[in-house]
Amino acid sequence: xxxxxxxxxxxxxxxxxxxLIRSIEAGKGQTFCLGIDGPGTSGKTSLAERLHGDLGxxxxxxxxxxxxxxxxxxxxxxxxxGNIEWERLEQEILNNLGKKSVMSxxxxxxxxxxxxxxxxxxxxxxILEGVSSLRREFRDYYNYKLFLSIPDAVRLExxxxxxxxxxxxxxxxxxxxxxDNYFNTHDPAGAADLIxxxxxxx
Length: 202
What we know:
This protein has 202 residues and is of the alpha/beta class. Helices cover 36% and strands 18% of the residues. The strands form three sheets. It has a six-stranded parallel β-sheet with strand order 1-10-9-2-8-3. It has a two-stranded antiparallel sheet with strand order 4-7. Strands 5-6 form a two-stranded antiparallel sheet. Residues 1-13 have low confidence and may be disordered.
């Protein structure tokens, strides 16, 4: 069941967060995989890090699985969020849920190469956050699915406030169209167990 907490929540943020904590703690002692999706700047990473600080576990960032530049063909980029190497993310992370020690290498966009392998403990709480985390191919892996919603105007305002000009141009010409194509095609909000208003403090 999807519940929308909108702009009229009137200070219930802390209780919503506590409800989320309780839902996660109900699966304590076993592998619990939480997916957090939503537009850029909606607060996915901040929420994931807050949950990690309160509950521990591992946070996996979709942004660590960007597709290498040489693999970004026009046909690949025409697919919803085709700039993400989601096949590798599924193979190395989601297929290994429940394992104590898993190695996976983030892709470093700055250098254009894979960084050193990192070790992940996927036996407890695993939080996968980022745009396309709730793509159809991934949904059966999750115990709980979250979507953070923000209006387009808020997304743009945050982008212009946060990012340098060259990134703003990338957002307008590439990243926002890619995100919107994914949202329209995969409908992650419709698959979420809970939709949160990303303009409000949770």
